[in-house]
Amino acid sequence: MKKIGFIGTGIMGAPMAGHLLEAGYEVSIYNRTKEKAEKLLQKGARWCDSAGECARNKNVVITIVGYPQDVEKIYLGENGILANADEGTYVVDMTTSSPLLAKKIYDEARKKGIAAIDAPVTGGDTGAKNASLCILLGGDKKACDDIMPVLAKMGKNVVYEGSAGAGQKTKACNQIAIAGALAGACEAFSYAEAAGLDVKKVFEAISKGAAGSFQMTNVAANALKNDFAPGFMLKHFIKDMKIGVETGENFSLELPVLKQVLQEAEKLAKAGLGEQGTQSLLKYYQK
Questions:
Q1: What is the pLDDT of residues 201-259, one digit of tens each?
Q2: Sequence-ordered list of residues with C-beta below 8 angstroms from that of 115, at least 6 positions apart, any chain
């Protein structure tokens, strides 16, 4: 598996593709905006003019793009991945997307003798840069085992979750848990501010105790420093939460905390904060 097509070279995809290049793989890349791929091209990646071209004559095709509609287009479109990939190719979608779409892609790929795997990631831009992502796999177990050496160049915790769509369902679990933890941290800090406390001292105290969490220490803490640069954009978190709400409804789940945080984030996005980091959720609570 030396020839890899990589589609999507944004905040996450660029460093992930870079790790594959450094590991000695022959990497071809496609991105809607070529400028975002320039650094990878300078490192030896090969440019492709379309997703279909990027899928041709490859052993593995990896995608990490924005939204489910983008995934559907690049996989199932007329000049998309499945129309151009060879029989025996492994196609790996690392976008956070719909479990139902992951199953649809799996079924269509199987008809062509292509192994489709849904492999969304957690760990944000830091995990992508450090090759320390958690990668959640859905698909045939053998196919997932086959591509493990490739995935190991991008993540440290690669977990097989089950059949097609299971990776996406597990990522939904992750985002549901994050929503509550992040909102809880933001509420705590807004309470501290309203109560006249030194918010930084409150953070130093509670972040090291039972209330501590990754979201408090690594995300909400940035808001306290007035740093709203995106490690993970609020608009993408909104997309993830919507997937959780929609699929939860399929299982007759209410998920009230998730729905509340989604509504809060959507209000911030409407106010023009969608491209800020998820820590901007604190602004919803501040007076």
A1: 999 999 999 999 999 999 999 999 999 999 889 999 999 999 999 999 999 999 999 99
A2: 88, 89, 90, 91, 109, 139, 140, 143, 146
111 in active site: no
Find the catalytic residue in 103, 171, 235, 283.
Answer: 171
pLDDT in tens, 86-140: 999 999 999 999 999 999 999 999 999 999 999 999 998 899 999 999 999 999 9
Instruction: Please give the Cα distance from 159 to 179 (Å, whole number).
Output: 22
In Å, how far are 31, 52, 193, 196 from 200, measured between CA atoms?
A: 41, 51, 10, 12
Euclidean distance between CA atoms 49 and 79, whole angstroms: 11
Retrieve residue 266's tokens: 């959507």
Q: Rounded to 10 degrees, what is the CA torsion of 135, 5, 65, 39?
A: 100
**Domains delineated in the chain:** 3-163 (3.40.50.720), 170-285 (1.10.1040.10)
Helix axes 234-250, 256-268, angle to 10 degrees: 150
- Which helix (H) or strand (E) covers residue 73, if one does? helix 68-76
